Amino acid sequence: MKLPKYNDAWLDNGLLFTVLIVAWPLVLALYMWQIMCDASRPISQTMVDDAKRKYIARNRIEERRQVIPRPLA
Questions:
Q1: Domain ranges in the chain?
Q2: Which of 12, 13, 45, 65 stands 20 to 30 A from 51 (CA)?
Q3: CA distance 61 to 53
Q4: d(Cα 16, Cα 22) in Å, to the nearest integer?
């Protein structure tokens, strides 16, 4: 039984053209559009509160890390 020969027809028809010329700019445009939509989304108050809470907690940890010098007597 003879196996069918590998076919390079996808190079000859329009698939390679579609991938190289049409597909990647479309994917890039959709990705940029998603980034723009995420950037224009308003920040909710819970996100602001979470950021404040993390900032306060980080400052408390930094204050605890500072060594208080003791007198040598």
A1: 9-65
A2: 65
A3: 12
A4: 10
* 16-26 pLDDT, tens digit each: 777 777 788 88
Task: Say how far apart CA 66 and CA 69 lie, in whole Å.
Answer: 9
Taking the CA atoms of 44, 45, 51 and 54 in sequence, report the sign of the dihedral they define. Answer: negative
Contacts of 10 (CB under 8 A, 6+ apart): 16
Check: CB of residue 51 under 8 Å from CB of residue 43. Answer: no
pLDDT digits (tens, 9 = 90+) for 48-66: 888 899 999 888 877 777 7
Distance (Å, whole) CA 60 – CA 66: 10
